[in-house]
Design goal:
Blueprint: H1 5-20, E1 29-35, H2 49-60, E2 67-73, E3 85-89, H3 92-98, H4 103-108, H5 112-118, E4 122-123, E5 134-140
Antiparallel strand pairs: 1-5, 2-3, 2-5, 3-4
Helix pairs in contact: 1-2
Amino acid sequence: MQGEAREVGERFGQRIINFCKRRTLEKPVCLLMGGETTVTVRGQGLGGRNQELALAAAITLSGTQRVAVMSFATDGVDGPTDAAGAIITGDTASRSAAQGFDPREALQENDAYPLLKAADALLHIGPTGTNLNDLVVGLVY
C-alpha cells in the first residue's frame, strides 16, 4: 500500500463496494493491506494518514450496509494525534454530518481527527514501541 491516503482510502472503499455487489457472496470477506501512505497537507486540520484514509473510505462507503474499515499505525501513533487510526462503517459519514461536520470539507482541510472523534470512530491503542507499517482491514459481513 502506497500513495495519497485519501486516494487509497477511496479505492479501498470502492473495492469493498464491488464485493458488496456480488450476488453470490455467501460468507464474510476480509481485505487486508499493509504499507504506508502519504498525505499532502493542504489545510490546517488535525489528523494522520490512517485517519485520512479512513475518512476517505467512509465517504466512499456512505450508506453501504454491513461494511467496516479499520486503518491504523502499528506504532499506535497516527500523525500528531493520540489515535492510532480509525474504524469506520457505512454510516460514519452520516453520523458525523448529523453532528454538523462536512466529511468532504474535513478531508479537504486534512481535518479528519475532530470528525472521527465526533463519530466515535477513533482507535486508541497507545504507543506500542514497534513500527512495522500501517495496516488496513476491510470487512464485508
